[in-house]
Amino acid sequence: MATQREKHNEWCLMRKYSFSDKKVLVTGASGGLGSALVRRLAAAGARLAVTSRSEKALGELIESLPSGAPRAVAITADLAVPGEAGRLGAQAVEVLGGLDVLVNNAGVGYFATLEEAGEETMRRLFEVNTFAPIMLAKTVLPALKAGGSGRIINIVSCAGRVPIPTVGVYGGSKSALAVMANTMRLELAPSGIDIVNVYPGTAATAFEENALREGDRSGLCPRHSCGLPRNDMAEAILAAAAGPPGEAWLERQGKWMSVAALIAPGYVDRRLAPVLKRAQDPNTRRKIRLVQVESSLACNLRCIMCPWTEIRDRTIQSTRLMAEEVWAAVRKHLDKVRSVDFTGGGEPLLQPNLPRWIAEAKTAGCETGLLTNGLLLDRPTSERLLEAGLDWLCVSLDGATREVFAAIRQGADFDLVCENLRIIAALRQGKKPRLMINFVLMQGNHHQLEAMVRLSAGLGVDQLNFKQCDVIRGQRGAGHGLFAARPDRETDRLEKSLAQARALAQALGLTTTAFAFTPEELPVCAQDPRDSLFVRCDGQVAPCINLAMGGQTTFLGRDVDMPVVHYGVLPKDDLMALFYGETCGRYRERFQQRVDTYRRAVMEAVITGNRTKALENAARSLPAPLEGCGVCHYLYNI
């Protein structure tokens, strides 16, 4: 007759181990992956004891379990405290009346180089990730042995096998757990206790967001943007946990890298070079790439195509300049920001605090810049901007002659703007700030493409940006654009003229940028809401200026409404809390999905050689953009 151990091994090999009616203790139950594991186990009929540090989170988790599932028991415990693991194990055995399965899911991440890692934090990490699961296992072993077929499931990580820069302490804690657990597996095999180390790979949870870190060390993967969804990951983990004892790798790449780290360490080092480079670059530790600060909604011009004129007219004069308290709410988080653009719907040089704000951003290590109409850019103002450390400055100049310019920029002075540009070009040291001109293509000025190139080169600027009249509110901006929904003779002619102008610019040593004349859907617009924010002059925080100031607009000839999307308002809300909030997270997640889809198509093109077909497939399979983005010309490269 087969022994109990032989029967149990047969069940494992056939993947028929059932959690139904088993007494299961799950640690780290209130986290994204932990809660998903608990729900899956409850649905399978397991009798559960669940634990985390938060009593409230455990209560909410238990209330969310499927109806008809056995009632779970909540036990609060802080596994970072020595001795808590033993207390938790004993209490779980007592309240459940025994134990069949221990799921060691609790863990904490840590992003830091070994040089900067703090001793106290390192000890805390090993307490949670290594000592607590081992002590828990030791505490509950008598109860597991009493059942004759107990299971210990450890959630480990390939970071314990691969030397990933800034993840060494976390990897070391998981490596130690894996080695000790594997040793315990061999030692306990005769007693009928199985141990499974599961290497899940990346899951789309908030694990990295909640990780410990030194300074502003970023993680390896942003929240909800890579890896399996938490429910799918939980299902895969439990399927592996129901299999034979040993190690279960759920991600092929992680397993391969772990093997390669032993047999081909040079290859692994080369693969990890970008991670090392990012760890050594202080700017990559800043989570927000860009904050666009609308320092002023006020303006000293009434340009024929300006979409913000009516919004400005409806705004009380005294509130058209950003208040100091709004800037202060941004300022306290500048160490997390790479770049600050002080431009919005008005003229930033009307903001009297602007030079000081630029200097404060520069002191915090941010790149700074602004777009101006140039009228107020006299010598004293230029000197203040240069002293503040401005990195780039762009001037709107939509005509190469007085007559054309005056017809568009009503109230401006062509000669004065040009002279101001010459002054700052002469005052700057080297190429800082970088000087640019924005030329908005319209019916009344497109014949001046080459004249604008020559003018720009003569003024001493570095770059000329050819832009479309792409932002429309009501009738402001409507009818001025040269782009079309589909190619025709006119767009072909304009593209050829633009190409000739850009060739001339190249010959004159001038950098140019330009947009398309017909739509080409991009995976994400240049604003890229995944890592940028727009702060309106009244403190409202939005994905971009278009969504900050919605209203009736025209999209490729159709009348549509641009919605208003606000994450919150400063200084009432905290900027980083809004950045990690639900609404901002939706934009980040959706655009990351689109980018991932596009990247897969690019890789397919590399493999198959059929770039056109791969990119066409990508365009068809892109997840739909969120409301507002789908009727924004920026997403369509216009």
Topology summary:
Layout: H1 4-13, E1 23-26, H2 32-43, E2 47-52, H3 55-63, E3 73-76, H4 84-96, E4 101-104, E5 110-111, H5 119-147, E6 151-155, H6 168-188, E7 194-199, E8 203-204, E9 212-213, E10 228-229, H7 230-241, E11 246-249, H8 252-263, H9 265-271, H10 273-280, E12 288-293, H11 309-313, H12 324-331, E13 337-341, H13 354-363, E14 367-372, H14 379-388, E15 392-396, H15 402-408, H16 414-427, E16 434-441, H17 449-459, E17 463-468, H18 489-507, E18 511-514, E19 532-535, E20 540-542, H19 545-548, E21 551-555, E22 558-562, E23 568-569, H20 575-579, H21 582-608, H22 611-621
Parallel strand pairs: 1-2, 1-4, 2-3, 4-6, 5-9, 6-7, 7-11, 8-10, 12-13, 12-19, 13-14, 14-15, 15-16, 16-17, 17-18
Antiparallel strand pairs: 19-20, 20-23, 21-22
Helix pairs in contact: 2-7, 4-5, 5-6, 8-9, 13-14, 14-16, 17-18, 21-22
Task: Describe the protein's architecture and organization.
The strands form five sheets. The chain has a ten-stranded mixed beta sheet with strand order 18-17-16-15-14-13-12-19-20-23. Strands 3-2-1-4-6-7-11 form a seven-stranded parallel beta sheet, sandwiched between helices. β17, α18 (489-507) and β18 (511-514) form a beta-alpha-beta unit. It is elongated, with a radius of gyration of 30 Å. The longest helix has 29 residues, at 119-147. The termini are far apart. It is built from 22 helices and 23 strands. α8 (252-263) crosses α9 and α13 runs parallel beside α14. The protein has 638 residues and is an alpha/beta fold. Mean pLDDT is 89; it is low at 1-5 and 7-15. The protein folds into two domains: 17-250 and 257-280, NAD(P)-binding Rossmann-like Domain (Rossmann fold); 286-517 and 542-574, Aldolase class I (TIM Barrel, Alpha-Beta Barrel), CATH 3.20.20.
